[in-house]
């Protein structure tokens, strides 16, 4: 998983039927010292995250697992946790 | 998932049998503000998208979970047509 900040959202009316009802957010991956790390991407939200929050997200087919067995959405990035805080020792 | 703009089409007569009747498009990834970045991709269209539209592209094994692509040899699929992108950063 990677740490990221939610920086925006995406609206798509015409989409895969298994994406209907899912929230698509733009996340900016971060380094542990909160600097941008690489390009922003679109991730599906599985935990009720919102713009401005720090989250961690999973890449790959695993991003669809939170929605099993009701749906198998075609997603390759998904937010699976909202971070309260993190500390580096 | 990536945001991308459709920049062209691909025609291939000789191809894997599971790709017969698939619509193949050339897309260029963009950042959330619409600026092109990165390498061009060939993606299978599952939502009737067209040249010039901004779309949502899923990559890797998750692309096979898009509608109609079960067991197809693909690693990028267009799964949504983007209406709006909001970035608050």
Write up what this structure looks like.
The complex is a heterodimer of chains A (89) and B (89). Chain A is mostly beta strands. Chain A has a single domain, classed as OB fold (Dihydrolipoamide Acetyltransferase, E2P) (Beta Barrel). Chain A has no helices and six strands. Chain A has strands spanning 2-11, 14-15, 23-29, 41-45, 54-59, 77-82. A five-stranded mixed β-barrel of chain A has the order 1-3-4-6-5. The radius of gyration of chain A is 13 Å and the shape is globular. The mean pLDDT of chain A is 96. Chain B is mainly β and 89 residues long. Chain B has a single domain, classed as OB fold (Dihydrolipoamide Acetyltransferase, E2P), CATH 2.40.50. Chain B is 0% helix and 43% strand. Chain B has strands at 2-10, 23-30, 41-45, 54-59, 76-81, 84-87. In chain B, strands 1-2-3-5-4 form a five-stranded mixed beta barrel. The A-B interface holds A 5, 7-19, 24, 26, 28, 39-44, 51-52, 60-61, 63-64, 72-77 and B 1-3, 31-32, 37-38, 46-48, 56, 58-67, 69, 77, 79-89.
Q: What descriptive keywords fit this protein?
A:
heterodimer; A: 89 residues; mainly beta; OB fold (Dihydrolipoamide Acetyltransferase, E2P); 5-stranded mixed barrel; globular; B: 89 residues; 5-stranded mixed β-barrel; 6 strands; 0% helix
Question: Cα-atom Rg of chain A, whole angstroms?
Answer: 13 Å
Overall tally of structural domains of chain A: 1
Instruction: Determine the strand fraction of chain B and express it as a percent band.
Output: 35-45%
Order of helices and strands of chain B: EEEEEE
CATH topology of chain B: OB fold (Dihydrolipoamide Acetyltransferase, E2P)
Overall pLDDT confidence of chain B: 96
At the first level of CATH, what is the class of chain B? Mainly Beta
Proportion of residues in β-strands of chain A: 35-45%
Secondary structure: helix percent of chain A: under 10%
